Every structure is written in C-alpha cells, then in structure tokens.
Sequence to fold (329 residues):
Amino acid sequence: MTRIGILIGSTRPGRKGDQVARWVHERAARRGDAAFEVIDLLDHPLPHLDEPLPALAGRYQHGHTRTWADAIGRFDGFVMVTPEYNASIPGVLKNAIDYLYAEWTHKAVGFVSYGAGGGAHAARQLRALCELLQMGAVTPQVSLSLHTDFEDHAILKPGAHHVSALDTLLDHVVAQSTEGRTATPTQRETDEAAIRRHIDGIIDAIEAKDLEGLRRLYSTDVVSFDIDPPLQHVGIDAKLKNWANVFTFFQEVTYEVRDLMPTVGEDVAFTHGFGRLSGSLPDGTAAGGMWVRVTFCFRKIDGEWLITHDQVSVPLDILGGKGVVDLEP
Fold:
C-alpha cells in the first residue's frame, strides 16, 4: 500500500505543529487508499548539517544521517506541516531536508502551513525547495491562520472549508504517489507549477516595488478590474500606474496570497484565491490591509504564461450599499 509521511516541521516548545499534524492524520486515516504516518522531527534530532559530501552523492557518513534516510526512504509521498517564522520555514525543517536527496526526489508532496497570515511565505519557500529536489509538489494546499483557525491563538479549530481543501490535497498526494507520476510530470502539472511561480514573481515584485519586474509578468493588453476606480484599467501602462499609486501609499509593502487554485488549459488558464496588501505608511503607521478575492487569468504567449486579466473584489452589503472589508479566509 502507498505510504504517506506527515512531517511536523517544528520542534520548538509550545509548537502548534503537532495539533495540525494530528488533524491531518485523523482526516487522512479515514481513507482506504494509503497508509499515513506522522514523522516528528523531535524523534529525529539532527545536528546542523555535518555530512562531508553533498546529499546528491548518497554516501552518508554518519549514523544519524543513515537513520534519517531510512525513516524517510520508506515513504512514497509526504504532507509537510510547517509554521512560518519571520516569513520563512523553520531552520530545523530546512536542515532535515538538506541532509537527504534520493529519499525525497520524485516523490509527491503537499503543504499545510500555519501562521499569522496562514504561513503563506513559508509555504512558498518550502514549495520552491521541494521542486528544486525534483519532488512533485501538488497544487492544492492548506493555509491556517492563527487568528481565525486557532481558538485563543492556541487550540486548532479549522474552518469547514479547510477540511475540504485538505481532502483535495490528500487526493492529489495519494494519486501522484500511487501512480508514480512525479517522475514524469504531465504538461498540466508543469504549467500549474509555472503559474504558481508566476504568482510568486508577482508577490516578490510588489514587495520590492519593482515596476519593471511587474511589467514582465503581464501581457501588454492586460485588462484589470481593480478595487479602485475606474471600472477597468486597460493596457500595461495603466496597470503599472495603479501599482505605482500603491507603492506611493506604502513605505513598505507586503502582499499575501492564500488558497490559490489554478485551472489550466492548453493556452489559457485562470487561478483564484484571496489576497491582502499590508505594510507600513510613510509616517511609520502599520496598515493591516484587508482580504480581497483575487482572480488571475493567463494566456500562453510565445511559450510563456502572462497575466492578461485580473480582478479584485470584496462582497457587497446590498442593503447598506457598502463593501464588506473585515472578512478573513
């Protein structure tokens, strides 16, 4: 039977990763298509990477490395549970991953992250790391907010929509692990990964206030339905002017995207999720921002996916005639 490891990526006292991993395991255990087991890094204490040869060589010198390799090598796929520390993954998780190569490569992996913003930055970094190791990172992921999914910021109480998202994540991890599809990704999987990297590029360019970097990610004829007037911004110059206005408003800017779900065709694709701009104002005041609904539409132009349309919206209180800006995913 296909074996899936649920890896807890934190070892700090008071961590919440064990609660999240138990939730994942309890949900996964209801399935009959794979065997699931929790892997706790607390049970595998590893020093800072001390192997003299690169993991790619596969010639592990130390007993703790060989024990770790045996623990990971018996699984066909993984669900990695990670918190977000200072917009990154925990050092102990990065260290544990760096110890090995063959035991990770060509295996499916899904991500369940948690943090103040759902652990979105950590999930992005972890996805990039796993793709570098030639793992088959599935598109669905789960992002849990410390504010809305943990009672009193302490006890995990995930919303019902997270259960559905977790089921979808598990579907993909089990399917890829069972069928061995990660070794030879389909064109759809390749395109989904490219689109996710494209969104990562949007995030990086916004946070760097890099207008020329943003220009490279949109088509010249992009049409944007933004939350600001007018009804539409037509063309790349109009789109960049809108971003320039945002950069003037913020001294430092952060952009988060959560629950991103791509749908890919031969030369057209779209993805929807939730986004939030936040940061600090020129006078130093913190601006928490608001969560909005975001949709990106892509067209493959000369072999490259470019955004040709995007839309930002908030729900409308019809009776009050005002947008609802205090909702969280």
